[in-house]
């Protein structure tokens, strides 16, 4: 009996430790500086210096929001926009699943300036613009395609692991998640590609079914859909340095890093905030609203929920105030 009591005590301590990662649950409506209602299916988000862009599959459009007014100021029609899009090289790059092409938009005119024939490995994937190229996982069998933004031409098709869907660029490399087959019980991985050679230079084992990833706050962060954990990789060593139990398993979701935190969007909970200094969840926002996206930039977090047709604007300073975190 005594050994059983000790075991129960240890289990209870462990449960308390997991729950202590997030001691506050906050209604996002109470902290948001704006709630923007959008018809259609507002989903993926990207930020440039002057605008917030939303991919809206329900309207077959990319919508442009002016953060000064929090209103839509332009719409660019795109046939079935899908996957996370990208901003870079003076353009917005979005996958059109309807046209099987990457659409290039000039934000100066809100006009389409190029259409590049292309397939995508999965509609729940991503395009990234950076490290001297526009990159997309174009085939489920394991192909990372590189486009030269100067010519809009494909300049490389790089063999990677099959069932790889999402990409990000930074720290001198392109990083992709190897999600694996949805029935697989093994851990997934992240592959690091050198843009100078177009070769895979590192394979890093992470959690099960990693899908979306973020770069920033001194790390590479993957959202692992099997168990809802987040893995942190040190880009200077290519080693996993933390696994954070967020308890938000399931498909969909998103992740972004910046302004002192890592921001996790999930179906089970609207938004989780990770402090990268201690690698723990420090607060959670609700109520749950299905899946959507998250991006942070310019001291603002933007969160979408396509099932309820909303986009929230949250000032990072308010989150820090909630957590009693200083500005430094």
Tell me what the structure shows.
By secondary structure, this protein is mainly beta. It has a single domain, classed as 7 Propeller (Methylamine Dehydrogenase, Chain H). Strands 1-26-25-24-23 form a 5-stranded mixed beta sheet.
CATH architecture: 7 Propeller
The fraction of residues assigned to DSSP E strands is over 45%
Task: Please work out how many helical segments DSSP would assign.
Answer: 3
CATH superfamily: YVTN repeat-like/Quinoprotein amine dehydrogenase
What percent of residues adopt helix (DSSP H or I)?
A: under 10%
Largest sheet: 5 strands, mixed
Strand order of the largest sheet: 1-26-25-24-23
Unreliable sequence segments? 1-23
Q: What is the highest CATH level, the class?
A: Mainly Beta
CA radius of gyration: 20 Å
Structural class: mainly beta
Number of strands: 29
Could you tell me how far the N terminus lies from the C terminus, measured between alpha carbons in angstroms?
51 Å
Produce a short descriptive summary.
The chain is mainly beta and 328 residues long. The chain is built from 3 helices and 29 strands.
């Amino acid at each position: 009996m005594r050994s059983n009591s000790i075991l129960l005590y240890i289990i209870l301590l462990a449960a308390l430790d997991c729950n202590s990662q997030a001691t506050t649950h906050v209604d996002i409506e109470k902290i948001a500086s704006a709630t923007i209602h959008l018809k259609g299916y507002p989903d993926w988000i990207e930020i440039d210096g002057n605008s917030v862009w939303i991919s809206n599959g329900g309207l077959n459009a990319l919508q442009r929001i002016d953060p000064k007014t929090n209103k839509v100021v332009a719409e660019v029609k795109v046939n079935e926009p899908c996957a996370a899009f990208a901003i870079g090289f003076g353009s917005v790059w979005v996958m059109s699943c309807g046209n099987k092409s990457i659409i290039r938009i000039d934000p100066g005119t809100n006009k389409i300036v190029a259409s590049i024939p292309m397939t995508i490995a999965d509609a729940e994937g991503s395009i990234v613009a950076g490290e001297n190229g526009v990159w997309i996982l174009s085939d489920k069998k394991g192909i990372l395609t590189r486009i030269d933004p100067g010519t809009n031409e494909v300049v490389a098709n790089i063999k990677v692991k099959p069932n790889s869907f999402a990409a990000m660029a930074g720290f001198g490399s392109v990083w992709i998640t190897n999600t694996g087959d949805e029935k697989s019980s093994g851990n997934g991985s992240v592959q690091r590609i050198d843009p100078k050679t177009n070769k895979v230079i590192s394979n890093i084992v992470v959690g099960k079914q990693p899908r979306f990833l973020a770069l920033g706050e001194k790390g590479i962060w993957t959202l692992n859909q099997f168990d809802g954990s987040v893995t942190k990789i040190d880009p200077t060593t290519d080693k996993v340095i933390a696994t954070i139990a967020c308890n938000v398993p399931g498909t969909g979701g998103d992740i972004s890093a910046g302004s002192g935190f890592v921001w996790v969007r999930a179906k089970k909970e609207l938004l989780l905030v990770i402090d990268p200094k201690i690698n723990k969840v420090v607060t959670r926002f609700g109520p749950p609203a299905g899946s959507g996206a998250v991006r942070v930039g310019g001291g603002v977090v933007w969160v979408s929920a396509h099932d309820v047709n909303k986009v929230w604007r949250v000032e990072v300073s308010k989150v820090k105030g909630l957590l009693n975190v200083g500005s430094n």
